[in-house]
């Protein structure tokens, strides 16, 4: 296996074989594939941005491929909310309209979008990204199909989710939650230049949608009788700002970060008596070192970076061996001191 592939997978043997399957599928440029009726899937499309140009373009592309698609997104933009959930808190009727008129003031806290030019496949939730995902899984999908979807796609996000920032990403958290339920899931993130709130028709959205649908078609076409993705994994896909002619490249989440997040004592630059503290986000001036060349934050600057993710925070077999050894040594030391 080429060196780039070795760098992108877990050293544990059981995970290595799973990762080989993924990299064989996504390695190299994907040719345009159209799903046949036999390969039509039930797909839940969600995000953390709300009704957006990106989500609308991907919905249309997937429908053209013959898939049965429903959309469930937050009422308003929820970037940075990660896996937050409002537990046991009833959702009141909307006090103000949703983003891009997905719902109007007075509409229920969750339900079908009431924007007149949308098909009945679109739903909103006045809550976090994961709450929108769960509405799609537990309410909309159950009513539509009577079972979970074959695939969950989260995004495409308006901005890349690469590096450590993924832990605060609603886009990635949606994919993680779906994978925890045993549903194949892919997080998709594009450049910030795909935003178009007034018109919902950014031309780059259509390009990202076409490429995303090609990846879906390829994964479906190669799976045979097995699942779309290996059990216990999900994918994180990041598109460059200009994705049209970008190559597909395997990547890893890695530890190189484009964004610097910090708490500021004054975001507004006011005098001490009128300071407004809060979270600041900026672009890192640090350059990647040679070992970070396959990190998705680096790869996605010039290519479509595809990283394989495990579910949640499990550290893998080798780390577990270290932990067991460390705890055993600690117990031995305690026994010696007791004697």
The SSE string, one letter per element, is HHEHEEEHEHEHEEEEHEH
Radius of gyration: 21 Å
- The averaged pLDDT comes out at 87
Strand content: 15-25%
Largest sheet: 9 strands, mixed
Count of helical segments?
8
Which residue ranges are poorly predicted, with pLDDT under 50 across at least 5 consecutive positions? 1-18, 28-38
CATH class of the largest domain: Alpha Beta
Q: In percent, how helical is the residue content?
A: 25-40%
Reported CATH architecture of the largest domain:
3-Layer(aba) Sandwich
From the N-terminal CA to the C-terminal CA, the straight-line distance is: 52 Å
CATH topology of the largest domain: Stationary-phase Survival Protein Sure Homolog, Chain: A
- CATH homolog superfamily of the largest domain: Survival protein SurE-like phosphatase/nucleotidase
Task: Explain what this protein looks like in three dimensions.
- The protein is α/β, with parallel strands linked by helices and 339 residues long.
- It has eight helices and eleven strands.
- It is globular and about 60 Å long.
- Helix 3 (53-64) crosses helix 6 (203-222).
- The chain folds into two domains: 3-255 and 293-338, Stationary-phase Survival Protein Sure Homolog, Chain: A, CATH 3.40.1210; 257-287, no CATH class.
- The longest helix has 22 residues, at 317-338.
- The chain has helices spanning 3-7, 13-26, 53-64, 129-145, 170-180, 203-222, 296-299, 317-338; strands at 42-46, 68-74, 110-112, 122-125, 151-158, 185-190, 233-238, 248-251, 259-264, 278-283, 304-310.
